[in-house]
Amino acid sequence: ALVPRYRSLFHHISKMEGGVRFLVRLRADLLEAQALKLVEGPHVREMNGVLKNMLSEWFSSGFLNLERVTWHSPCEVLQRISEAEAVHPVKTWMDMKRRVGPYRRCYFFSHCSTPGEPLIVLHVALTSEISSSIQTIIVKECPPSETEERNKITTAIFYSLSLTQQGLQGVELGAFLIKRVVKELQKEFPALGAFSSLSPIPGFTKWLLGLLKSKAKEHGRSGLLTDSESQEIAELTGGPALETLQTLLSSSEWAQSEQLARALQAPLMRLCAWYLYGEKHRGYALNPVAHFHLQNGAVLWRINWLADVSLKGVTGACGLMVNYRYFLEDTAANSTAYLGSKSIKASEQVLSLVAQFQKNSKL
């Protein structure tokens, strides 16, 4: 096969001081230029692929060090992690202090050539049950006592995973990091029994608004809402349900109204279950976060109502979040079934919501 000449140039650069870091930034620029349609075509895709493969070799698990962050870590590390937080932005230093304090753990991978420099960061909450709301993790004050009551810690919740280097997108760091952190936590807390994420659902509102728009054009029953739901929404808002729903979900104000939130709970939970379980891209889950956890062998375990009531949470995913649960003895089999047969392992709650959606829409 023909090998592009720049491959040997990249290889040469990688051996120079700061060379690998330069190539990571080069790929980040390339990805940004592609996203903005500044450059396109097969030659650009090929260069991106070559860089990605080379970076995957240089950042394979043998070259990665796991490091834990505490409030006593170097200031620049804390600053870097706070700036890189892509899922739940860090608002203040006190906020950051809570995220590395009691009942919390924060870990990152660094490359053996640049120790202390975070590449990807995982935040974990140590709890007594599987969390159904992000507010209880990042807004709630931690217990005032500095010492953790170990007997209360039975569950580890992965609530944020952020790349600090965009040039490493698609390089398998996240799955490695979760596996390593699980081992680390098991050593520290041998009684730890449950591992789960509490994950955002990026793209859900956008997908739903597109669906509502297309259904509103078709006259007659849409299949998205039951007759009683349509009636209740129409009575509360004074307009036709589907059109009104489009307007409501385009802002975050509906979440402030107890009546509206109650009326929307059943349909949104049902639609979200279908979005995560039923909407596919080349046979795999369309939602990128779902795809990530499912290929790691997690179970689509529970969809949580009003789990993130921040502006970002309500506008991005109607306030919903999801737990992908890791049953350690089953992850290898689940991963093989998903990647090989494209079959998604889901809980009774999720399957029941999917069945309700299918019954309504007669898909």
Automatic annotation (TrEMBL):
Chain ranges of the Malonyl-CoA decarboxylase C-terminal domain: 62-326
Record Gene3D superfamilies: Malonyl-CoA decarboxylase, catalytic domain (3.40.630.150), Malonyl-CoA decarboxylase, oligemerization domain (1.20.140.90)
Malonyl-CoA decarboxylase N-terminal domain sequence ranges: 1-59
Sample GO molecular function, one term: malonyl-CoA decarboxylase activity
This protein's GO CC annotations: mitochondrial matrix; peroxisomal matrix
Any one GO biological process: fatty acid biosynthetic process
Name the UniProt record assigns to this protein: Malonyl-CoA decarboxylase, mitochondrial
